[in-house]
Every structure is written in C-alpha cells, then in structure tokens.
Design goal:
Strand content of chain A: 5-15%
CATH architecture of the largest domain in chain A: 3-Layer(aba) Sandwich
Shape of chain A: elongated
Structural class of chain A: alpha/beta
Helix content of chain A: 40-55%
Largest interface: A-B, 41 and 41 residues
Order of helices and strands of chain A: HHHHEHEHEHEEHEHEHEHEHEHE
Strand order of the largest sheet of chain A: 2-1-3-4-5
CATH class of the largest domain in chain A: Alpha Beta
CATH topology of the largest domain in chain A: Rossmann fold
Largest sheet of chain A: 5 strands, parallel
Oligomer: homodimer
Number of domains of chain A: 3
Radius of gyration of chain A: 26 Å
DNA sequence: ACTCCATATGACAACGTTGTCATTTCATGG
DNA sequence: CCATGAAATGACAACGTTGTCATATGGAGT
C-alpha cells in the first residue's frame, strides 16, 4: 500500500512523488525531465502535468551525485580594477548558463601571477566543474590551454584566434575594426597618427596593431616607429605614452590607443597640457566601455559584441558536454566602429 | 579483506579511501573534515595526513545531498550598465564565500521590474540557496525582505539601515560623508551649492541628501529648494539636472551629485557650456568609481568600503547558517572623502 | 582492580537522482 | 492468431556523503 521510500513528507516533492502522481516509475519521470527518447507522448504529458501540479524541481545535488556531472561551468578571469569588459563577459556567461540549465562559478585571478597554473589546476580539480570558459587575457596565456587539456577539462576560449586553435574558440575581427578606425582618421586628414600598443600578453594587442599598419599601408602612409609606444591597457600607461608622443619634435595630430582606458589617459594628459581635443589632437580608443561615452569629449572607439561572443562560447561548450557537435561558426564576430566627438579634422 | 564499497578505482579518492588509509571509519574522516568535536588529536592528525596524501576533496554533491544544504549563497543584484559598484560587491562576496567554503550564485535582475518578487521567489526556491545577499538597491525594495522571511531563506542586506532592520544588515555612514563633502565646499567659500538627488528607490539617496542639509544647517546657510534637483544615479540624469541648475538666474557655484556617474554628467554638461571645472563650477560625486579618477578633471568624491561591507554581510550570513551568533558590529562602516581637482575656491 | 561517565569511534541507513539491465508492451508480418 | 523485435517502462543498485544511534575506550574516583 505504500511506496518503499518517501512517504510524501512535508518537504520538497521528489521524483517519487511525481512518479506516484503520474502513475509511472521514477525512471520514466527521469526520462521526461531529461528529454530522453522512448517515452510515449501520452506518458510524457501525464508526467509533465504531475511535475507542474507538484511544482517539482529536480535536486541538483542528487543529480550531480548520480550522474557524476556538476552542471557547473567555471569562468576564469583576470580581476582587474577596470571591470567593464568583464561585466559584458559576465552578462553573456550568465545568460547562456541560465538558458542551458548550468550554474556559473567565478574564479577571479590577479595578474601577473607566478602561481597562475597551480591556481587554475586547483580550481579545475577542486570545484569539479564540467567545463571552463577562458575570456581574454586568460585564454591567451601560455600553458593555460595545455593545462586544461592535460586535466581533461573541456574549455572554450574567447580571444583572438591562434594559428592552430585548440578546443572551442570564439573571436572577433579586432584587426579589421582597428584598420577602420585608422582609415577614418586618415580620411580626416591625419597622416601622423600615434599608436599605443596594448598589454603584450593580450593577443588582441597584436591584432589591433596589425589593423593600424594595414590602414597606413592601404593609404600609402609611411610607418614611423617613433609614433608607436608600448602600453599596458591602463589609464596610467595611456597618460605616459601620450606624454612621450606629444613631446616629439613633430608630434602626432591623432593618437589611437588600443583600448578606451588608455585613450582616456591620452585625453587626460592632453587636457593637462592645455591641448584641445579634438581641435589640437584627435583621440581614438577601443572597446566602447562606459568611460568612452561619459568622458569629455566622448570617445571615438570600436565596440565588440562581447556578451554574444561569450554566450556563443558557453553554448558551444555545453553542446560539447552533451556529446553533440560544438558546431561553432568559423566566421569572426563583427566589431562596430563608433564615431564620437574626440576625433575631427587635422588641425 | 576488502571493504564493501569503493575498491579504490581509478577515479577521485573518496572518504572510503581516506578512512582505509588512516585506519579509521568514514564517519571519523567526516568529523575531521567538518571540524567536529570529539576526535582525538592523534586520530585527527592521521586523517589529515591521509587526506593530504591522497589529495582528497569532499564531493560537494554527495555532501549536499546528505546534509540537505547546498553550500550556495545567492547574490541578487541590479544588473545596471554601470557596474563599478557591483564589481566591488562581487569581489567582497567572492572573497568571503571562498574563505568560508561556500559557492556564490549570481542572480542579476533588471529594474524597474514588475515581476521582481516572482523572480526572486523562483530563484530562492529553485536554486536551493542556503542564504541570500541583497546589496543596494535590491535590499531597499519593499517586499523583498518580507518575501525572504516568508520563504524562510536567511538573508543579509547591505544598504542603509532602516528604523527596524530585519535579518543581517551592514551599512555605512553615507550621511556623514555627504555632510563632510558639503562642509568642504562651504569652507572653500561656496554658499550656493546645488544638490542632485539619487534614485528615489535607493535608501542611500535620502542619507546623502540628509548630510547635505546638515552641513548647510551647521554652517548657517539657508536651504534653497531651487538648488535641489531629482536624479536617477545615471550619467544622463546628471546632465539634465546640471542643465536646470546652471540655467537658474543665480546659478550655483558648486554642484554635489549623489553619485559619480551623475557628477560625470554634470562635468560633461559644464564642458558643453564652455564652463571651466573647477574655475567656474566645482563638482562633487559619491562612490569613487573608476570614472571619478579617470575623468577630467578628476572628481572629488567619497569612497565606501563596499567590498568589506559585503564580506561582512556574507560572513554574518554564514555564521547564522552555522547556527552561531551572527555577531555583527553595530557600528557603521566608514566612508572616506577623496579630494581631487574638480573642486576649488568660489569663482 | 572495578565502576562509571564522558569522550571517541563505528555501523548503517538515509539523501534523490541516474545508469544498467530486465521486463513488458505494442505494432508488424507471416 | 502467433512469432518477432523494437519501443516503452520498470526494478534496483550505485553515487559519496552526513545524521542517528550504538558501541568501544579511557581516565577518574573508589
């Protein structure tokens, strides 16, 4: 007269309650919940009705214990002060995880970091994640991808493509966007355009630099090494690079920074020198972070669809975890150029 | 000759492996792992050694299934465009969770939102969180706290204190910091000081307004309602409020905005009008977000120890979950005033 | 040495799923 | 009407911990 287990106590309904109500075995309920084949339509409906009636929610712990999967995806990221890029990463990752029924587990890391690989190993093993997403610059770092392969943890990177991409890789046309920005400046009459490189550990750095050179070449403008300075993607490094560039005997009339923070630094320094932007100096950034539209003057820049890229990465990862084809498009995501008031015609 | 279970397969070591190696029962291993009493020092050491030898990590799913706790803390937050406040919230929450052995589960919400309570209910029930952290402005919203009490989900709020605080509440001295900022302006010679209110749903809004009025009163300056404008904590609302204030017959010589984004809007608008900051207009913000130090001129503002506050909230919550006294200090956290170049003497 | 009690340890049954394999059901063709 | 095999369903044992309760151990007091 009674099931052997779960005498329908006051707690949350379990798979037994649903099975009893639908008049089937727990295994059939499990099949319905997990969208498995070989369930008669009629049966499926009865089970779904019982689930709805009882407001049944599968117990994640039990599921994880039995299936040996955690339904957790790890997001390993650089925890820099500037977080606007990561905000978009987070939005995309959360949206995709939610849609796929996965939980997102955050693992911030500080860079540079000698123990990086050890920390990632600990995280990957200890947290029992089913897979890991590696946005730039983490996915760019030597050894990270190899480590995850060694640990046999599925992963997806969101970072400019390497010659031989490993695992799932989502990327965008940084170089093209950079070229478009530089071309725009050239069309405004600029022919001495300063360029501030990004952090050398970010693969995007070389892509953006490449676009700059391509634009010069396409317009027949000679390359001047004095106009290219190193930077670190920080506001301060942008200030410093701007100071050097504007102290040249023939200073540039426009400066392209490899990201918005450095561009803000350039603009800040120009103001300190009493220069007008864009009257005396045009300034260009990259990323379209909030600071780009809120600083004065607002910044001409390029916007990456970061959330969508990360969503695509998570979706690909989940498909792989489910044993399906990862099935990622080979085409890069497209960056959009945003023209604002920080750029104008040659003085 | 063999245990009944777990013939030491190739997989991860389990509590059985540790028990065998240490020559004790699994229950004793469990006791050691969970820091329970009544384990002889000698025994504890043997178990710990075995754990270290095998690199044993308890299985979270099994633990959760057995103990009926998830070891997950939910963080419900407003997913605004501007994320610098949330970055600090996140840092604090992650740090505390990591230290306490809990996992953080993120639940972004968009505001305003008619289905807010339903969404929170779904999250709290479905995600099986052990507790929830509610930073401002979520913790300020009518009904949220009551809902969690009804659901019997432990929670901690990080938001200005109400007359009768419910659950764990962590807060800081917003009003005092605001008063200090206003006093500083008055000491610089300003006596017509504009004030831009924050979003009416944030409890911090009234606190910061209160500090402004207290400073006026303390210095014997009359209150002028025309100098106080509504805002929404956004850049745009700051611009608009500044436009109104600067169009007055006798415009203010300084404007206090209730946060940095609005202050950036004020500064932006001042530039559009051709005004010099701080020569013609002093501008003050609140929060010390990255934009405050990166905009031109850099912004005088007040900095809250948000990470520490959220850490304290999580720690209090965890203590409560463990059945200990929540044991929170009654003293508010202290905000620090940061003087930068956006403020100066009266023109 | 012996009792007694607190302390330390162990045996074993949950916990709620999924995986494996056995069994039933159903349509189909002979 | 029966044999056949595929589709549908079910029985039951994991999964790795913690909670409960029973039992062993050791030291203090006689």
């Amino acid at each position: 007269m009674a099931r052997r287990k779960r005498e329908s106590a006051g707690g949350k309904p379990t798979i037994f309650d649903v099975a009893q109500r639908a008049g089937v075995s727990i295994k059939t309920v499990s099949r319905v919940v997990n969208h498995e084949d070989n369930v008669r339509e009629n049966t499926r409906e009865r089970v779904l009705a019982a689930i709805a009636d009882l407001d049944y929610q599968p117990n994640a712990a039990a599921r994880g214990l039995s299936s040996k999967r955690s339904y957790v995806i790890g997001l390993i990221y650089e925890n820099a002060d500037e977080f606007s890029y990561m905000k978009h990463v987070l939005d995309g990752a959360l949206a995709a995880c939610e849609a796929q029924g996965y939980t997102l587990l955050l693992r911030p890391l500080t860079l540079p970091n000698d123990e990086l690989l050890a920390q990632i190993r600990t995280f990957a093993v200890q947290a029992r994640v089913d897979g890991v997403v590696l946005p730039a610059p983490i996915g760019d770092i030597d050894g990270v991808v190899d480590l995850l392969k060694e640990l046999d943890v599925p992963f997806a990177t969101v970072t400019p493509r390497t010659p031989k991409p490993e695992g799932i890789n989502v990327f965008c046309d940084d170089a093209q966007a950079s070229q478009d920005l530089a071309s725009y400046l050239i069309e405004q009459g600029h022919n001495r355009i300063g360029f501030i490189l990004g952090h050398p550990d970010h693969r995007a750095t070389e892509q953006r630099y490449k676009g700059y050179r391509q634009a010069l070449k396409a317009h027949g403008i000679g390359y001047d090494a004095a106009l290219v300075r190193k930077g670190l993607f920080t506001f301060e490094s942008g200030q410093q690079a701007a100071a050097k560039l504007l102290s040249l005997d023939t200073p540039p009339t426009a400066i392209m920074a490899s990201n918005d923070d450095m561009a803000a630094g350039v603009s800040f320094h120009a103001h300190e020198r009493g220069l007008d932007v864009p009257g005396d100096l045009s300034v260009v950034g990259f990323d379209d972070t909030p600071v780009a539209s809120h600083m004065w003057p607002p910044l001409t820049t390029a916007r990456q669809p970061i959330s969508s890229m990360v969503e695509a990465a998570v979706n690909g990862l989940v498909r792989q975890l489910r044993g399906e084809e990862a099935n990622l498009s080979e085409a890069p995501f497209h960056c959009e150029v945003v023209i604002r008031r920080s750029t104008g015609a040659t003085p």
